[in-house]
Amino acid sequence: MMDLTQYPLETLAQQVGTPFYLYDGAILRERMAEVAAATAGASLHGRYAMKANSSRYVLDAAREAGLWIDAVSGNEVERAMRAGFAAGHEPPVIMFTADVFRDNALDAVVGHGILPNIGSPGMIRELHEAGYRGPIAIRVNPGFGHGHVEACDTGGPSSKHGIWYEEIEAVAALAQSAGFPVVGLHAHVGTGPEIGEFDRNMSRLVGVFDDLLQRFPDVTSVNLGGGIPHPYRIEGERYDLGGYRTLMLEAASTLSEAAGHPVAIEIEPGRYPVAGMAVLVARVHDVKETRTNEKGPGHRFVMVDAGFNDLIRPAMYGSYHEISIVGRGASRTPEPLVVAGPLCESGDVFTRDDQELLVPRALGRPEPGDLLVLHDAGAYGAAMSSNYVSMGRAAQVAWEGDRATLIARRESLDDILRMECHEPL
Ligand code: LLP
């Protein structure tokens, strides 16, 4: 967790307004370097899944660490290229993974020679019709997986992702008739699993690829996806990347032996390198309470100016983020408090579970004007923010040791209105 005493939070809040995201550059670079070190060497490659946070600041850190990119939309491909990641598939620095080609995705893949990692059989036809002539990768649904909630479990019969493992044979034939060599096999079976689940699933995946490899003589890389766990709770255990490196090195040699030529192992974590490098800083506006009656128990609500438009994870998945009070409340005896935002929805609450129940948090009761900080907000925070109810997206500030830089200003009403038009069609 970020040590909040290191940052002049109140000064920054006055400069850029609240709520705002604060990114710590040193933590970001350290985590990116950890992923790079875990995947160093000729037989391994690390990608950054940029959906977790696609800020230029973060992309620069990934590029400087030597990581490649997992992009999932045409604009992510373009954004990665603007940040200096190379186009083309030799080597495939940017891989495009999707189950649907939307907007400019096909154009980006065909036009820039990006390696498409296809998750749905019909994409082979679409690629061919769009004039693509080149190698492809195939995303496999191996029939198992696990995420932090059902919506983040991306393997098994209820997952829309990838090609069901028993259909792979037929898809290989389709690829062959389209003239696309299959150079990569891929699976991403869940995001945010428990550490034990993650390790078990990764070992199991290597076995699945070992079986599949025989049918794909052109495969030169096998991608195990993202999903490296991040500890959101103070008492949570940090994942040991050293153990994962050992598994990957062993997998590279087993699969290379099975294939009869070198097969590299790739991974593409998104959450791991960025979750812990950011906090969302909000201002407390009020503290109020409801009373117990026949409908249920009463609660004390801390009303802050950040909402699920800024950080949707608690409202969407019941995700847990540690919370700190900065100001007069910090030294008070903790009491059970519900933290809620400014939106016109009862679900705009940061302290709730995945059953939509309120889970009051033990915090010192703040005074209006104190700051309230939501931790570990770097992954799927700003990236999933919206301008619901025309509240502009929050500003983003980067902290570099002793100085702050504004890296994204607050979204203005003019920004929001810029897309509106009146064009006869
Ligand atoms: N590769 C693919 C193909 C993916 O779909 C994802 C995440 C990743 C890699 C990166 O997974 P990670 O290392 O971050 O676990 N909004 C959710 C997470 C959705 C992840 C979607 N795909 C959340 O806030 O928890």
In words, what does this structure look like?
The protein has 425 residues and is α/β, with parallel strands linked by helices. It has helices at residues 9-16, 25-38, 56-64, 74-82, 105-112, 122-129, 168-178, 195-212, 241-259, 271-274, 313-317, 413-417, and strands at 20-24, 44-49, 68-71, 94-98, 115-118, 136-141, 163-164, 182-186, 221-223, 264-267, 278-289, 300-304, 323-326, 334-340, 361-364, 371-374, 395-400, 403-408. Helix 8 links the parallel strand 8 and strand 9. Helix 4 crosses helix 5 and helix 8 runs parallel beside helix 9 (241-259). The chain is globular, with a radius of gyration of 23 Å. The N and C termini lie far apart (52 Å). The protein binds ligand LLP. The site of ligand LLP has 19 residues, from helix 10.
Strand-helix topology:
Elements: H1 9-16, E1 20-24, H2 25-38, E2 44-49, H3 56-64, E3 68-71, H4 74-82, E4 94-98, H5 105-112, E5 115-118, H6 122-129, E6 136-141, E7 163-164, H7 168-178, E8 182-186, H8 195-212, E9 221-223, H9 241-259, E10 264-267, H10 271-274, E11 278-289, E12 300-304, H11 313-317, E13 323-326, E14 334-340, E15 361-364, E16 371-374, E17 395-400, E18 403-408, H12 413-417
Helix pairs in contact: 4-5, 8-9
